[in-house]
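Running this now, will post back.
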Amino acid sequence: ESTVDNLDTLLEKLNFNHINLFAFSDHNRFDENLFWKAKEIIDSDNQKYPEIKNILPSVEFDVTFEKSKPSCHVIVIFDAVDKSHTQKIEKEILAKKLTQKDDSYFIDDFQLLLSGIGLNTLLIACQRKGLDTKNGGANCLSDACDDVFEILETGYISALEYQKPNVQGMIKKSLSKFKRNVSTIA
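Update: finished.
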């Protein structure tokens, strides 16, 4: 329910939980007006939501890394500082809009989309289990490619997102002998 009408509900919960930096990432789309309305509320005198300091522009994309594999959720946080940047995000996504619910961007198309937007990004891949586990969890990076460590080695993915604390432990164990530092985000 990401609409301007629902912003107060979201901001109340974030403020109550002392969250001061956030991004809401809709699947494969970006609503520039919604982003700027939230930013306007946050940047106002903000007596209503004093805990919240900023919002980041982001999108959660469905990305297929390998044709024979399921897609992975990749949150992209954009280094957008003004309306010309957010207009470019929305315009490029609309120009390459996915039309079916289960569609995803193939990796080459995804890279072209990001290149067309032309902003610096952080890419955060979904991971709901240990990196070397093939069963359980949906939309995970480890299911989306044959060699998850090869993808991580390149630095293409900035961090791994998990939703349960025990998954962070599984990810860290999987990365214990990995050469590159990979951040995890709850």
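The CA atoms of residues 9 and 15 lie 10 Å apart. More later if anyone needs it.
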